[in-house]
Design a protein that fits this description.
Chain lengths: ~120, ~120, ~120, ~120
């Protein structure tokens, strides 16, 4: 189940068993993904920034955060599937591209600037 | 690389090699995730809903959609890591829970209603 | 209250009366805004696209949609305030800029293309 | 132009002059709103949390933040319009409801807890 392809298959089966594939067009899934992202944001929003990494290890909050992270992943994998994207392959290419785009020795400890600001 | 744990390790290595782990607190990563979700939404927003699944198979758009899906996955995996969440395990539990919450025979072809509306 | 400056003042007063201004740094408010955007997305996600404009006029759903739209506006106005942005002025400038960027006679009935795709 | 109704009318006119109202169904506008929210998140994501309120006053960043805040407002107002929601009225009701829900004397300096956590 740790494989993205297994999650993809489980989501396919889940949707097909409920005749829900009809609802899973890209824009609807994109909104569902946005909804789950919002739920995760709500869990983190008022945490003091410098304590957040510690506070999310509290068992009750950690459980909730894990559930929302999982929901995001499930919709993400499903969206990739209906868009005919090989998510694992795309992720591999992106990690490689990021390594080239941000040479380690040039960006040591310097956060990327937003596009359009220098 | 298709394993979530391998993506997690690649992101750790990427961040550590650049001394960027200092920027990767949960709230900052949550905002980065939100940023990537927005980029994907922009690719889909004006597509006619009933043609979207076909149009996203156009090679140029499919490439872009794949890149944004990948960006979301990378930040999602990284956020799970700094929150000490086992994302694969959480996803497995969520798929199982969804199967119980929505019995296939009861919800055939019926989209879930938003919470609070009956 | 229809004036953005009145909403801004009401939000200031609300935060100050509760000693909540301490929580209203830009990144936290950005996450709160994201949370409300997610709640609105959840209300719309499974509506059939071509019936959505009609279905959101159903009184119960319309009430909920209105509440979420309002929540987004309140955090948006508050975020603009803590960022020292004159939101009404910025909106005016953006409408004017959009009119120049998309000449009416050139874009009749043609949706804008995502950046980077031609 | 500071009135929400004036922004609404300007957006109507903008859409009608370009025959773009056909693209402005609720779900598409919701995705456009999500896209703009993502752009704002990207401007804030790597700012140190405790310096963000100061750093966003830098003229170049403040200009960019103002533009993204404005874009969000424009789509929000447009979305409210196509959903037949009186946004100013809804905002007024929400501010009033929030005042009742969070009595000032009971929540002094205490951030609200996420739903479902006690």
């Amino acid at each position: 189940m740790s494989q993205l392809s297994e999650i993809r298959d489980a989501m396919r089966e889940f949707a097909d068993a409920r005749d829900w594939a009809r609802f899973h067009d890209p824009k609807s899934l994109m909104l569902a993904l946005t909804g789950e992202v919002g739920e995760l944001a709500e869990l983190l929003q008022w945490l003091p920034a410098d304590e957040a990494a510690t506070l999310v290890r509290d068992p009750a909050l950690n459980q909730r955060v894990g559930e929302e992270l999982a929901d995001i992943l499930l919709y993400l994998v499903r969206l990739a599937d209906v868009c005919d994207v090989d998510l694992a392959q795309a992720a591999l290419e992106k990690v490689t591209a990021a390594g080239t785009r941000y040479p380690a020795q040039e960006v040591q400890g310097v956060a990327p600037r937003p596009r359009g600001l220098t």
